């Protein structure tokens, strides 16, 4: 090969290398197409987030009541290990209730790509502050001692719960600024309506006909006290009562999934379902928000 041929071959090789580097630079890497996103599963649609089962097969583990710091419960998790680790959240029951009253939460939300821990409390009569501590203890157990700890991203944790568990959810978020999101359902807390210390995105789901935790005394004042800079939303379920959280209500489940996806996974594909905000309808009597964007 003469010198001119050698130079031509080198030039051609350098051009191919430049194209390869350019393609590598613009191709999405990891799970998310944008930096900081943790996308799990296919592009969402209204039908997919409303479905009773998402794209991930799930399995469950029972945690005994003998575990320290809370009363045990049930962990539901995706069986897929090909997409990396998942975000996780703990869910606290309401007064006198147990995880058995919320059997929809684990399978429905975990099948969308989360590890979900529906917990029991040490006593069914524990008040919100105690439930807040137990939620944090449950998260610590999940990431440090559970059988699925290696499936969880410990930097993407959140809390949720119903009634006194919802009040505990807000207290836990107030106490731990490292949590990524909070979604209380029909929250009840008599000791304070001030949650101005909540600095993470919070969606409060209330029920229009709630007589146990009337929204004007609990959910709405709680929402109003959270700083707008934290990103927040208030969803009120039309015609529903306090115990709608124990049912697989589609609107309730859809927004719980959407909020967790948007803020625990930082998955901007889900922003379309909360911004622009949904209109009032036969299932939504009120919706207030700070509309991220």
- Domains (count): 2
Major beta-sheet overview = 9 strands, mixed
Under CATH, the topology of the largest domain is which?
Rossmann fold
The CATH level-2 architecture of the largest domain is identified as 3-Layer(aba) Sandwich
Count the helices. How many?
A: 7
Order of SSEs, N→C? HHEEEHEHEHEEHEHE
In terms of DSSP E residues, the strand content is 15-25%
pLDDT averaged residue by residue? 90
Task: State the CATH superfamily name of the largest domain.
Answer: Alpha/Beta hydrolase fold, catalytic domain
By secondary-structure content and strand pairing, the structural class works out as alpha/beta
Distance between termini? 60 Å
Structure write-up:
Helices cover about 30% and strands about 20% of the residues. The chain contains 7 helices and 9 strands; from the N terminus they run H-H-E-E-E-H-E-H-E-H-E-E-H-E-H-E. It starts with a helix and ends with a strand. It is globular, with a radius of gyration of 22 Å. It has helices at about 5-25, 45-50, 105-110, 130-145, 165-175, 220-225, 250-265, and strands at about 60-65, 75-80, 85-90, 115-120, 150-160, 180-185, 200-205, 230-235, 285-290. By secondary structure, it is of the alpha/beta class. It has 2 domains: about 1-30; about 45-290, Alpha/Beta hydrolase fold, catalytic domain (Rossmann fold, 3-Layer(aba) Sandwich), CATH 3.40.50.
């Amino acid at each position: 090969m003469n010198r001119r041929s050698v130079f031509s071959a080198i030039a051609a090789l350098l051009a191919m290398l430049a194209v390869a580097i350019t393609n590598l630079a613009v191709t999405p890497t990891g799970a998310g197409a944008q930096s900081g996103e943790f996308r799990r599963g296919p592009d969402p649609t209204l039908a997919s987030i409303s479905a009773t089962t998402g794209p991930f097969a799930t399995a469950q583990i029972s945690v005994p009541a003998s575990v320290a710091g809370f009363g045990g419960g049930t962990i539901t998790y995706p069986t897929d290990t090909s997409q990396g680790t998942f975000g996780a959240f703990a869910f606290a029951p309401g007064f006198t209730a147990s995880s058995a009253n919320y059997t929809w939460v684990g399978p429905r939300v975990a099948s969308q790509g989360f590890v979900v821990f529906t917990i029991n409390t040490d006593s069914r009569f524990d008040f919100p502050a105690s439930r807040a501590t137990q939620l944090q203890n449950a998260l610590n157990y999940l990431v440090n001692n559970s059988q699925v700890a290696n499936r969880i991203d410990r930097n993407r944790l959140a809390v949720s719960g119903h009634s006194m568990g919802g009040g505990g959810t807000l207290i836990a978020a107030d106490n731990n600024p490292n949590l990524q999101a909070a979604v209380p359902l029909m929250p009840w807390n008599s000791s304070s309506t001030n949650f101005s210390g909540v600095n993470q995105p919070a969606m409060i789901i209330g029920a229009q006909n709630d007589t146990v935790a009337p929204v004007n005394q609990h959910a709405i004042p709680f929402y109003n006290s959270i700083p707008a800079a934290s990103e927040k939303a208030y969803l009120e379920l039309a015609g529903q009562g306090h115990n709608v959280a124990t049912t697989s209500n589609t609107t309730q489940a859809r927004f719980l999934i959407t909020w967790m996806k948007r803020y625990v996974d930082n998955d901007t594909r889900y922003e379309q379902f909360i911004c622009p905000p949904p209109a009032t309808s036969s299932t939504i009597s009120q919706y207030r928000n700070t509309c991220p964007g």
